[in-house]
Write a structure and sequence with these properties.
Layout: E1 10-16, E2 23-28, E3 33-36, E4 43-45, H1 55-61
Antiparallel strand pairs: 1-2, 2-3, 3-4
């Protein structure tokens, strides 16, 4: 259900960070979706990782409004 409060604000992926190769976390704020590495702290635009989308990222994106991407 769109706009449901049950949608998560973040999810752990298996996608490696381009800087340190540790798994990234996908996060959403009120206006944006981005990738963040909890190891090195780097934040990246989600567009840089869409070609590497895994099941966790795909499931997370199902709950994100299109205007956040």
């Amino acid at each position: 259900m769109w706009g449901s409060s049950s949608w998560k604000r973040s999810a752990q992926t298996t996608i490696p960070c381009k800087e340190c190769k540790k798994p990234l976390t996908v996060k959403r704020s009120c206006q944006h979706v981005y990738m963040e590495c909890s190891h090195c702290g780097k934040k990246s635009d989600i567009a840089a990782y869409l070609r590497e989308m895994d099941d966790a990222l795909e499931a997370f994106m199902e709950g994100v409004y299109c205007d956040r991407v």
